[in-house]
Amino acid sequence: MKLKSLKFYEPFFFNVCFTLAVLSLAMALFYDAFSVKVFYCLSYIGIVYFIIDMIRKRVVVNRPLALLCISLFVIGLTRFLWGKYFHDSSWGDVIYNYTTGGKRFILGAFLVWFFWYRRHLLHENTIKLAAGILVLGTLALVYFGYHEWSIIHRRIQLGTDSSGTVSYLIVFIFITCLAFLKRVVNNSAISLVIFIAILGFNMALLFLTESRAALLFTPQIYFVYFLFHYRFISWKWKVATLLASIVIIIALVPASVWDRMHSIQTEVSSYDNNNSTSIGARFSIWKSGWHSTEFSLSGQNPDDRNTKARNWIKTEERGNPEAYKNVIYHLHDDLLETLSLQGLMGLLSVLLLYFATAWHALKNRRYELFYLLLTLVMFGLTDTVLIQRQTVMILCLCILLVGTLSSSKKEGHEKDV
């Protein structure tokens, strides 16, 4: 009797957990305290269910999904142990971000496992509710973004540490929202309108961050998404949608963004004579970061890395003031930052995460994960994405929600248990 009762309540319990995960993601950038509490609570539930699955041995292991969970666990464990080993560093904030982010990666591995192996319990009405919550969440982001900009009249951060950080978090959330809307809307014409609207709102927020990397990469990500997911519609609709998207993007661009985009060529061309610019500083930081790297398994202390990098900038980069000031925070490149601090183990853990996400997306037909991965990789070329603990939580939530979401109603009834 008790077993039957548990089986009756399990679908309801799972759908509640799924809804809470969606709420956590939707509110992550303007109510972080709630999102963090929900994330941890769901993670502990995931651990309990993982232990139950292992004891009962009732799971037919899906290898791509298992590798993804292992990669999340490995990158988390690597960062957590590195942070604990170098806990005496004077850069306490860096250590705290990596240890907390590592813990969240580890918990994320159990979360992804829990949601994937019970995805057959996900109800269609829950998916529709989730889509509605994400729409409200993205609209709230637009409201809070413009509200912040109207007060400070400079690049928005939405409670994060920088405008660059919030730019890629915005893209993660909007792509997840787009995946849910495409799942619940079957009409091609309405789906195209939704695509244009999501792109427009996403770009409008990115304009307020004035992040040049985000403004250059994001349209390309959406373009790839459009070509793949709307490849069966007529060329007339394709051209009309692309033209509408281009017109909306151009119409929304403020003068300050045009100025920042125009300055790219100027800063690159003047690097030999004046390297103390935003882009010039990144060139200097990348070179100093590479020359400060120790190719060991365990990496090095942030203090040692920063000292070596600053000495290189002094001697080889004409003492670039902008680079000298900012190199102590991070190296503006995910792979280089990880290699320079966590060594070869850290680098391999990031590459494993990239590969595992791509394999899972391909083999299990969770193609929307490709766009999350594409965002992670492209933004990681010019910024350090995975250093922030908030980023790790949002990334894990996006992976588990998009990974759990089936591409069709029929597929939603498939299961591995």
List the helices and strands and how they pair.
Layout: H1 2-26, H2 32-56, H3 63-85, H4 92-116, H5 124-152, H6 163-184, H7 188-209, H8 212-229, H9 235-252, H10 255-269, H11 278-291, H12 302-316, H13 321-326, H14 334-363, H15 368-379, H16 389-404
Helix pairs in contact: 1-2, 1-5, 1-16, 2-4, 3-4, 3-14, 4-16, 5-6, 5-7, 6-7, 6-15, 6-16, 7-8, 7-9, 8-15, 11-12, 14-15
Give a written overview of the molecule.
Its main location: membrane. This protein has two domains: 2-264 and 330-406, no CATH class; 270-326, no CATH class. The protein is 76% helix and 0% strand. The chain has 16 helices and no strands. The chain is mainly alpha-helical.
Q: Kindly, what is the distance between the CA atoms of the first and last residues, rounded to a whole number of angstroms?
A: 21 Å
Structural class: mainly alpha
Largest sheet: none
Quickly count the domains.
2
Q: How many helix segments? A: 16
Order of helices and strands: HHHHHHHHHHHHHHHH
Could you say which overall geometry the principal axes of the C-alpha atoms support?
A: globular
Percent of residues in helical segments? over 70%
Q: Please state the average pLDDT score.
A: 90
Assembly state (oligomeric):
single chain
Number of strands: 0
Strand content: under 5%
Radius of gyration: 22 Å
- Spans of 5+ residues with little confidence (pLDDT < 50)? none
Organism: Dryocola boscaweniae
GO molecular function, one term: ligase activity
Keywords: Ligase, Membrane, Transmembrane, Transmembrane helix
Main location: membrane
